[in-house]
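Example complex used in Figure S2.
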Amino acid sequence: MSKIWVGLVFGLVLGAIDGATAWFTPEARPLIGGILVGSSIKGMIVGLLSGWFAVKVHSIKWGIAVGASLGLLFALLVALMQKNHYLEIMLPGFVLGGVIGFLTQRLGTPGVPQAIRPEAGRERMR
Amino acid sequence: MELSDSVVDYLRQVAGLPDLSGTRYELEREIGRGGLGVVYAARDQQLNRRVALKVFDFPMPQEAQLIAQLEHPAIVPIYEAGTLPDGRSFYAMKLVRGTRLDHYLARSPYLAERLRVIGRVAEAIAFAHARGVIHRDLKPQNVMVGEFGEVYVMDWGVDAVAGTPAFRAPESKLDRRSDIYALGILLRFVLPKPQPAALRAIALKAMMPDAGKRYQTVNEFLADIERFQEGLAVEAWTEPLWHRMRRFGSRNGVLLWLFGAYATVKFLLFFLRHL
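Predicted assembly (401 residues):
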């Protein structure tokens, strides 16, 4: 599985779990469906970008940092849309982004580097 | 005329030295002595380099030709073989500058370094086995660690060698698995105290008295050591649950910290909300 797919799958799963924790907040219960979908999509976008970063840069430290930053950024966007619950949305989003960043660094195949692809070589020879 | 004891000793010593007249080699000193022959440091005058000369009191063993074909970074290359003017056979090989493994361990290297050395030795043995050559006398004294960390397996045995008792497998007819037995003892020898349980189990499996219960190839032995180095479960040992959990924790420490941080954040937010 490529790192981008690892990011997408773990982003989806962890995003859904994070969204499901809204069940413990009584006032959010009626909106749980929308929260679940939104949180999953947010997780997938963070996973996609973290996976892409992991293909380019191989560093656990930077993977966590970039994942956490992306998680924070997208959580901020969600919180801005809600205009409420900034801390409840951004803090877990930040940490979960770090988890996704770590997983994309640790798991998955980076893919064939461009330099050893035959077609890349042919292009260079033209 | 009577000769003093010291003169007799000197004559005995000189008579034992190989006759290198007419060869390209100039004798320097004796550097080792084994059951099969004596190893001398010598200078190759033609190429102006130091070499090791192994001199036998009997015709060149056939296995020497096999050893000469083993081109591997951990096997000392043989440069030339032939017969000396005094009728003794010899071969010239690279003079390895380094420390014997037993002396090297006195410097207390880290476990990773000890395992690196064992890995290089095992790779050399696996390479030789693939070409039909068995070492027969693997022991710390036959492993050298060079000044740049290079590892050499020396003194490849021939049929005449019965092996060193402490490192010799119990079976009467030696085969590849006898080398695996010696590798197990070598592994146990290099492990620091307290010995990690998984590595001790690997050594014990390699040292099983019944050759059929040992690793059947050196590569299987190496693969188990690599599994240990990667933090995975080894085949030689059924680890208890607590050990498996500890291994999981040490392999996934960062991930556990991250999940721990997530859980803490969630709990804090939950309690803050209900204050």
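The beta strands of chain B are 25-33, 37-44, 49-56, 78-83, 89-94, 98-100, 143-146, 151-153. Residues 16-94 of chain B form a domain with the Phosphorylase Kinase; domain 1 fold (CATH 3.30.200.20).
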